[in-house]
Amino acid sequence: MTRIPPRQPPYEPATAEDLAKLMPPGVAPLRLFTTLAHNPRVLRRVRKGGLLDPGSIALREREIVILRTCALCGSEYEWSAHVRFFSAAAGLTPVEIAATVSGDPVPFSAAERLLLALCDALHRSATVPDELWRPLAEAYRPDQLVELLALAGQYHMISYVTNALAIELEADAPRFPAG
Question: Which regions in the chain score pLDDT beneath 50?
Answer without folding.
Answer: none
